[in-house]
Q: What sequence folds into this?
């Protein structure tokens, strides 16, 4: 138990320390500074601009910027859908798998191009190697880089004055891939291979077990897929069991390394913010606000899962930690990781917007499972996905200074920009999209037979399964509660629509906000300005995130996870 706690703490510490130089590096990349990879990458970058016909120095107003985002996404979706449908005719398919059904191809294509990675299928039984590498791997890169590009555009909105442009989407996308995502992917893949993660193109192997039965051992290009799964914020597993599978996550080192991959770029982008606006302390304020919520959430899940199931406690079962027992709630957990490291993984994946899992969230205690659900309902800003977490937290920061401005009777300011009517309208639009869709779609799903027929448990737990799935899709997380049969026409269609609206219902107003801010003049801080780089503002920002993000969903949470927890405490299983 102590070793697990130390491992969890060291992982967070290493991520925090590594985020600083990485964040500075990302800022230099997007400020066109020369970096250590420039001698190798710069010629490739220039050649790519020539191929696609983009002038590197040509910038775009926000409408053109967001149009490019949408065009790329539509093309990417169509490509992925088509590739999955004709999978049987493509190479690198040693298992001879046929095309993916239309509704599942639709859901999967939208899932990965929106950086969600919701999987209504078992990867090793459904996808060929070319589908895993190209149809799914390529959208992982593009969706992560798109999120980073939008975040960079919003940062420029704060850093520029009287500007009609916010950068060039294709330049931002290219640099995010060539200078950040690809180099990290190469190095991290080699590390995972060194620890035993599989990387090959071999046909599945059939072996005789000791009992004389036949077993098929699935394999493939897992290591390279695994890195992008964790680093991109997509989280979709090569295998059905995701990071609980020993070929994806063979030991404690790889487990903590994968947690680090989920967190490192989102936290680094907070440092990038401070660097690009010329105020490093502002970036640190956002960084620590993210950090405080994630640490608090992780602690809450660890406490709940290590405490175990209250029904078993009432029955006299000893769930305490001992020399020969991990203790706690081991249902749905990988015995290699136990309650503590499984709890940390769950908090990191739902707080980061990644969606990878190394245990079954459906088997968590009600309050332990509630924390990942709440982290998603906050908008995945702790630290969120690559780019998406930063611009999500900046939306909360704008709301925080607006509320503070109302308190002191002054026009709110943030990072040298006056926050006025248009900025607040766009901010509230972006923050209301997810709650509206989650609550409306969840309400509809509990009223129709196709919605309720997929749950595995009646009562409050089944309600949690439905809410979790719709929330996961709407906030582009992709993790599943594992008790809901989502591979149905109803849920494939519903969740596909939720993923699309959840992604672009936020991105469009965020890019519009970037354009509005860039056109404003920079206002020097005055005597009445709220200091937004102090510990007091960090605490205030955390409070705004919790109040606005969590309390919006409190009624439905009370009817699901909290009600189930009260029933378990009273000794009732259902």
A:
């Amino acid at each position: 138990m102590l070793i697990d706690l130390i491992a969890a703490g060291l992982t967070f510490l290493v991520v925090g320390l590594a985020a600083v130089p990485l964040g500075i590096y990302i800022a230099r990349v997007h400020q066109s500074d020369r970096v250590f990879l420039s001698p190798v990458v710069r010629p490739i970058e220039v050649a790519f601009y020539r191929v696609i016909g983009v002038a590197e120095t040509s910038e775009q107003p926000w409408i053109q910027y967001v149009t490019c985002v949408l065009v790329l996404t539509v093309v990417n979706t169509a490509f992925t859908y088509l590739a999955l449908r004709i999978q049987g005719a493509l190479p690198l398919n040693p298992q001879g798998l046929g095309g993916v059904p239309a509704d599942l191809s639709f859901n999967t294509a939208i899932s990965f191009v929106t950086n969600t990675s919701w999987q209504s299928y078992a990867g090793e039984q459904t996808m060929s190697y070319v589908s895993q590498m190209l149809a799914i791997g390529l959208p992982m890169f593009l969706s992560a880089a798109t999120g980073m590009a939008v975040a960079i555009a919003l940062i420029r909105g704060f850093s520029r004055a009287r500007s009609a442009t916010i950068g060039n989407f294709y330049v931002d996308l290219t640099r995010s891939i060539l200078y950040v995502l690809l180099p990290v992917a190469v190095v991290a893949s080699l590390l995972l291979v060194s620890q035993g993660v599989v990387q090959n193109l071999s046909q599945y192997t059939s072996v005789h077990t000791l009992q004389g039965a036949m077993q098929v051992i699935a394999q493939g290009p897992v290591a390279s897929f695994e890195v992008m799964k964790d680093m991109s914020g997509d989280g979709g597993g090569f295998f059905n069991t995701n990071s609980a599978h020993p070929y994806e996550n063979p030991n404690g080192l790889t487990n903590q390394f994968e947690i680090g991959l989920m967190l490192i770029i989102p936290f680094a982008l907070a440092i990038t913010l401070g660097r690009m606006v010329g105020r490093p302390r502002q970036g640190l304020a956002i960084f620590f606000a993210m950090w405080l919520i994630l640490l608090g959430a992780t602690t809450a899940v660890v406490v709940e899962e290590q405490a175990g199931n209250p029904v078993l406690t009432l029955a006299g079962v000893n769930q305490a930690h001992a020399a020969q027992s991990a203790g706690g709630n081991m249902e749905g957990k990988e015995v290699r990781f136990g309650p503590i490291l499984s709890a940390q993984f769950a908090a990191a994946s739902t707080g980061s917007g990644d969606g990878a899992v190394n245990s079954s969230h459906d088997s968590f205690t009600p309050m332990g499972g509630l924390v990942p659900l709440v982290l998603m309902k906050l908008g995945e800003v702790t630290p969120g996905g690559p780019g998406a977490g930063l611009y999500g937290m900046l939306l909360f920061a704008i709301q925080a200074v607006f509320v503070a401005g109302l308190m002191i009777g002054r026009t709110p300011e943030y990072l040298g920009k006056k926050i006025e009517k248009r900025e607040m309208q766009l901010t509230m639009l972006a923050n209301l999209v997810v709650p509206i869709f989650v609550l409306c779609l969840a309400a509809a799903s509990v009223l129709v037979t196709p919605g309720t027929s997929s749950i595995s448990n009646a009562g409050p737990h089944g309600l949690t399964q439905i809410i979790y799935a719709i929330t996961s899709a709407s906030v582009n997380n992709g993790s599943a509660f594992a008790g809901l049969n989502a591979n149905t026409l109803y849920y494939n269609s519903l969740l596909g629509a939720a993923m699309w609206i959840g992604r672009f219902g936020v991105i469009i107003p965020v890019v519009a906000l970037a354009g509005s801010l860039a056109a404003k003049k920079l206002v020097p801080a005055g005597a009445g300005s709220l200091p937004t780089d102090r510990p007091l503002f960090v605490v205030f920002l955390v409070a705004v995130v919790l109040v606005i993000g969590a309390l919006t969903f409190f009624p439905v949470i009370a009817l699901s996870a909290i009600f189930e927890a009260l029933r378990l405490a009273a000794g009732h299983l259902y």
